[in-house]
């Protein structure tokens, strides 16, 4: 049995599996599944990556779009690394499109990971978790260091 877990997927997907047989004519087969996974809320990108140097004002925007007729309501529940990032949730098209603005607030070279939790009014997806990662480099960097 071939099974595809679509729990955290959205949009077009393509999955394949190799099957080995004892048939000398076809010792190996590839089975492919293509489809479009519908999600009540389309999230793009799925991860907030903050990359840049200290001189840059590193930030990113994650867009959240309702795929339903019913208006979407989002609320910021928590930010796991509030000392490292500023987060702002803005409704750009009433009940339809939201933007999650994530901005670095660390003033030294560092790497970090965390997440933002949002609550929704959709019973199919009562909570959204958006991963955050940061890679903030010095303004001037020499490679290799030695």
Summarize the structure.
With 146 residues, the chain is an all-beta fold.
Topology, pairings included?
Blueprint: E1 11-20, E2 28-37, E3 41-44, E4 48-53, E5 59-66, E6 74-79, E7 85-93, E8 97-104, E9 110-120, E10 127-137
Parallel strand pairs: 4-10
Antiparallel strand pairs: 1-2, 3-5, 5-8, 6-9, 7-8, 9-10
Helix/strand/pairing category: mainly beta
Helix content estimate: under 10%
Distance between the termini: 53 Å
Runs in which pLDDT lies below 50 for 5 or more consecutive residues are none
Mean pLDDT: 90
Number of strands: 10
Cα-atom radius of gyration: 21 Å
What is the tally of helical segments?
Answer: 0
Number of domains: 2
Strand order of the largest sheet: 3-5-8-7
CATH superfamily of the largest domain: Immunoglobulins
Approximate strand percentage: over 45%
Commentary on this structure:
It is a single chain. This protein is an all-beta fold and about 150 residues long. The protein folds into two domains: about 1-40, no CATH class; about 40-135, Sandwich (Immunoglobulin-like). Helices cover about 0% and strands about 55% of the residues. The chain is built from no helices and ten strands. It has strands spanning about 10-20, 30-35, 40-45, 50-55, 60-65, 75-80, 85-95, 95-105, 110-120, 125-135. The strands form three sheets. A four-stranded antiparallel sheet has the order 3-5-8-7, with no helix packed on it. Strands 4-10-9-6 form a four-stranded mixed sheet, with no helix packed on it. A hairpin with a 3-residue loop joins strand 7 and strand 8. The mean pLDDT is about 90.
């Amino acid at each position: 049995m071939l099974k595809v877990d679509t729990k955290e997927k959205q949009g077009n997907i393509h999955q394949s599996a190799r099957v080995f047989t004892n048939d000398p004519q076809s010792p190996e087969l590839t089975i492919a599944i293509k489809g479009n996974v519908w999600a009540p809320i389309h999230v793009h990108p799925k991860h907030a990556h903050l990359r840049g140097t200290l001189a840059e004002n590193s930030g990113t925007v994650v867009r959240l779009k309702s795929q339903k007729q019913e208006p979407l309501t989002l609320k910021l529940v928590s930010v796991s690394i509030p000392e490292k990032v500023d987060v702002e949730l803005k409704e750009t098209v009433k009940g339809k499109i939201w933007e999650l603005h994530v901005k670095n607030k660390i003033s030294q070279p560092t790497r970090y990971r965390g997440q933002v939790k949002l609550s929704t009014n959709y019973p199919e997806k009562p909570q959204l978790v958006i991963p955050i990662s940061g890679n903030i480099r010095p303004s001037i960097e020499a490679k290799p260091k030695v």
